[in-house]
Amino acid sequence: MSKAIVIGAGIAGLASALRLRHQGYEVDVFEKNTYTGGKIHAIQLGDYRFDLGPSLFTLPELVDELFKLFDEDPRNHFNYIQKETICNYFWEDGTSFSASANRDRFVKEASQFFEESEESIRNYLKRSQRKYELTSPVFLEKSLHKSKSFFNLETINALSSVHKLDLNQSLDQVNHKSFSNEKLIQFFNRFATYNGSSPFKTPGIMSMIPHLEMQLGTYLPKKGMHDISQSLTRLAQKVGIRFHLNAPVDELMTENKTVKAIKAKGKIYNADTVVCNMDVYTAYNTILKNAPKPEKTLKQERSSSALIFYWGINKEFKPLDLHNILFSENYNKEFEHIFDKKYFYEDPTVYINITSKHIKNDAPRGSENWFTMVNAPTHEGQDWKAQTTYIREKIINKINRNLKTNIENHIEVEKVLTPKDIEKETASFQGSLYGTSSNNKFSAFLRHPNFSKSYSNLFFCGGSVHPGGGIPLCLMSAKIIAKHIRQS
Ligand code: FAD
Q1: Can you tell me the distance from the alpha carbon of 77 to that of 396, in angstroms, rounded to the nearest whole number?
Q2: Does residue 322's CB lie within 6 angstroms of at least one atom of ligand 1?
Q3: Residue 150 above 60 pLDDT?
């Protein structure tokens, strides 16, 4: 049986391992941490459980597919609910808007709240869908770096409609052309953060993201986001994939343009195929330091990072749901600080995720588990202790103003995660959440391919390579490499 080695047990590493096992490989996964899942991890603070990283779950069928590969009914292993309310939004003037997952209801309520015509909102969502459907088969589901990806009907369709993709305008410009209400523009601008970019820089094609959330739906695993990585780990173990935890790979042993083996903890393991799920930037600076470097790719701007307070709150807040946004009064300045000044803006947008709204065991009765996050600049040597003290006070004041409370009195337990911690924990260069940013129209083409140009049997998956970051795209990267390997 051919041997495959996967380096890193992030979501894309787990999915790649499963897909290769399904293709008949003997698979070993090496993970530097003592746990699998990478950014999809959880912590327990006293009686409160928190998902450590991602909180928004879309396209759950991509996880289900992995169970189905092995003729397992996903529902016997992994369950989720579909959300009826997508997110609650709050502004400093005391207004708030609850975005319904029901399209007709959303259009009606948004039209009333934002004072825009139902027609303009409906048309925006239709264009969002069109952009998603045109680009997804070309930009997301295939390699962008193989010439044969370009000679088929879907690509020709997408390229002939390129003028409809709004590549030459920023998302903010597209939104300003579509609407006049600044709050609605801010609402649709926020989707740039779903891949760690700025709405003032990312191209208008990103207006396809609302289609994912608002029309394909948002979900919550019944045991929390952590169950995505944990249920897949259990499946992997069941189908005979071997995990080597606390086993960082230190070196790739190469010969004649192939990787012959990897070295971990001083031992050598042979492989026919190697899949790297590490952040590609870190990989080139460590295990691939002797390989030719794709300089242009590695110079791409990183996506934003995050600073998170995990707070056990001994009170329940009725106006809050699973996902909540407290908007900054000056979005432009906030993104200028994140991407250019590289420190926090005084009025940040605050995201609060509360899984205990649905998962009762995540917090004691009458209490809530608050994952309180602000978008942050990448880690470039800032003094995170000082930045944390500064932003904690700003966040608390904002919550107090918006929710008319004194939140500090309700914080029972606390843990902080900074961009530097994210880098340390997951080896994600500069603590970026989604690999490189999509702050220019060529980003998709400049992302690292899913294969190595130097070694014929080395492949790359995960958020730092094509097609990009976020759980669905990481799962798609695993699908792309499994296809490459099958065809190679
Ligand atoms: P990672 O999770 O980055 O894992 C890589 C693995 O490689 C790690 O386990 C690491 O320890 C291991 N590794 C590194 N070096 C070595 C080595 N030398 N040897 C062995 N192993 C090694 N996405 C969403 O879809 N929705 C969200 O709401 C969302 N929010 C987010 C919020 C936060 C705070 C964060 C951090 C991320 C968020 N994301 C979100 C992004 C999403 O989590 C990631 O895109 C995705 O989980 C990345 O998966 P990955 O497979 O690329 O690998």
Answers
A1: 39
A2: no
A3: no
pLDDT tens per residue across span 164-190: 778 889 999 999 999 999 999 999 999
Please check whether residue 31 lies inside any domain of the structure.
yes
Q: Does the beta carbon of 481 sit less than 6 angstroms from any atom of ligand 1?
A: no
CA dihedral 13, 17, 20, 22 (to 10 degrees): -130
Listed residues 166, 187, 216: the one ending a domain: 216
Tell me the pLDDT tens digit for each residue of 375-391.
Answer: 999 999 999 999 999 99
3-class SS of residue 345: coil
Q: What are phi and psi of 316, to 5 degrees?
A: -105, 140
ipTM of the complex: 0.99
10: domain CATH number?
3.50.50.60
Number of domains in the chain: 2
The chain-wide mean pLDDT, for the chain, equals 95
Give the separation between CA 98 and CA 324, rounded to whole angstroms. 9
Closest by CA position to 261, among listed 273, 247, 245: 273
Domain that holds residue 203: 102-216
**Is any ligand 1 atom within 6 A of the Cβ of residue 206?**
no
Query: Does a structural domain hold residue 325?
Result: no
Instruction: State the Cα–Cα distance between residues 324 and 144, nearest whole angstrom.
Output: 35
pLDDT of residue 156: 57
Task: Report whether residue 55 contacts ligand 1, using a CB cutoff of 6 Å.
Answer: yes
- 99-113, 145-159, 340-354: lowest mean pLDDT where? 145-159
Is residue 460 in a domain? yes
**What is the residue whose two structure tokens read 């997952």?**
101
For ligand 1, atom 27, the nearest C-alpha belongs to 54
Let me know whether 205 and 124 are in one domain: yes
End-of-domain residue from the set 194, 216, 238:
216
Ligand 1 center to 175 CA (angstroms): 30
Write the residue with the smallest CA distance to atom 13 of ligand 1.
Answer: 8
| Tens-place pLDDT, residues 302-336 | 999 999 999 999 999 999 999 999 999 999 999 99
Ligand 1 touching residue 38 (CB < 6 A): yes
Among 39, 230, 378, which is best to mutate for testing ligand 1, by the most ligand atoms less than 8 A from CB?
39
Determine whether the shortest distance from the Cβ of 7 to ligand 1 is under 6 A. Answer: yes
For ligand 1, whether the C-beta of 56 sits within 6 Å is yes
Task: With respect to residue 373, please indicate whether it lies within any of the assigned structural domains.
Answer: no
